[in-house]
Amino acid sequence: MIDIRWRARAAAVIAALAFLPAPRTWAGEVIEVADGVYLATGFGPSNSTLIAGEDAAILVDAHHSGAAAERAASAYRQSVELPFAAVIYTHGDRSHVAGAAAFTGSYFAPNVYARSNFRLRRSVTGVEARKRRQRQKGLLLGQEQRAVAVIDPLPAEEDTGDRYLPPDSLFYGDRYRLRISGVMVELVAAPGETQDQLYVWLPERKVLIAGGNFYQAFPGDLDGIGDRAADFEQWARSLDRMRAEKAEVLIAGHLQPLFGAAAIDRALADYAAALRFVLDETLRGIDAGLDPGELAAAIRLPPNLASSPVLAQSHGTLAWAVRSVYARHMGWFDGKPGSLAPLAPRTLAWRLHELATGGVSLDEALDNALLLRDYRWAAYLADQLMLIEPLEMRHAERKAGALEGMARGLENPQARNYLLSAARELRLNGP
Fold first, then answer.
1. What is the CATH number of the domain that holds 392?
2. Beta-carbon neighbour count of residue 389 at 10 Å?
3. Which of 1, 35, 140, 278 is 20 to 30 Å from the Cα of 316, by its Cα?
4. Are residues 268 and 413 in the same domain?
């Protein structure tokens, strides 16, 4: 039976999500969220779920490390003493799969299920990726400095020993139904945060295990795990499919569960609506000629979504989501002609230093750059002046001259065409 205290506690967690303090220790605990369905949470950044069958158990996801999984397995045994007949991976992020063998007691589990496009993602790939992840997680900071994200409550010294089991039972198609130890289990393809996502639906118990497609926080895209930026419309459609199940218990890959069909429907609806809003507004801004920085600064959630407790910006942020959509649809190029042949960063830094210490205005510096045929510097200065005075025709004309000068010095025909076309548009249409 469901412990009613956890309904109230889960609701309190949701309501206060944006204000959660950074915990210093996470002992972990096992919650029976439905009859025979147990959630292990707080053992690290991700959850696992045990489903008790007639004579065996099913494990869904397996924590971020062998050490965390061993603690969770020990906690499970205090409630359920069953061997594991199957392991199910909702997706291939290492933080959800690294500890499976700690539960099965062997490196050869009977069945390990995943989608056919399952891909194991290591947390880091290469020196620079490792540095970025260390900065993101604050792993080199002291405990007094480190801000602990609501879905990443790991102490910096956490053991990350690997007990990973590769999947050996891959399914194709949209939905795979099977009965394991008397339990009806449905594995449903749900591409979203990553392409290999699935969710687990237990129709007889009205429990949905969402994997990485639903956080009780704004969607995030800063992990650098090697996937292309997510397809937000596809992700939203997967959330629609989850809503259609009419679950009474929702287990996410992180944090506490949600209870009640109405509350779950609202949470999933808000999440899908936020993804679609970001997608639509970003594409609209792209068509209006705005660059990623301008879009990230301009787009704001409508009040009904901004106030949603499942969209607190404590994991991802709205600005990052906007940039992710831009990158997916438009690639690295921000549309600014000068970005096709910019000044080298060190050169730009010296030019800015000289400008700041020389007592020369931006306007005068732009005229000087054009006289000296320093066209890249001139284009940069013109961009800054057009941000300050966007309707000033004189700035547009001088930028056009800078772009034409840049084009004459370029060998690449596509770059020349782009710069000359942009210059022509400025002369014909103005800023």
1. 1.25.40.880
2. 12
3. 140
4. no
Q: How far is CA 374 from CA 182, 345, 405, 428, in A?
A: 76, 16, 9, 24
State yes or no: pLDDT of 8 exceeds 70. Answer: no
Residue 80 lies in a domain: yes
Residue 17 has pLDDT above 60, yes or no: no
Buried b (16+ CB within 10 A) or exposed e, 252-280: bbbbbbbbbeebbbbbbbbbbbbbbbbbe
Helix extents (H) in 20-164: 66-77, 100-104, 127-137
Q: Which of 277, 310, 345 delimits the end of a domain?
A: 277
Q: How far apart are CA 253 and CA 258, in angstroms?
A: 12
**Pairing label, strands 84-88, 112-115:** parallel
CA distance 123 to 133: 8
Crossing angle for the helix pair 393-408 and 413-429, to the nearest 10 degrees = 160
Picking from 277, 293, 320, the residue at the C-terminal end of a domain is 277
Q: Which of 270, 208, 216 is nearest to 245 (CA)?
A: 208
Rounded to whole angstroms, the Cα distance separating 88 from 196 reads 13
Contact in structure between 40 and 72 (CB atoms under 8 Å): yes
Mean pLDDT to the nearest integer, 264-271: 98
- CA 241 – CA 259 distance, rounded (Å): 18
Range 214-238 average pLDDT: 79
For residue 177, what is the enclosing H or E element? strand 175-180
Higher pLDDT: 23 or 112? It is: 112
**Strand ranges (E), 190-297:** 198-202, 207-209, 249-251, 258-259
- The CATH number of the domain where 162 resides is what? 3.60.15.30
pLDDT tens string 334-375: 999 999 999 999 999 999 999 999 989 999 999 999 999 999
Across the range 154-170, mean pLDDT stands at 71
The sign one gets for the Cα dihedral 208, 227, 308, 273 is negative
Mean pLDDT score, 409-426: 95
Tokens 């690295």 sit on residue: 332
pLDDT at site 3: 40
The model's pTM? 0.86
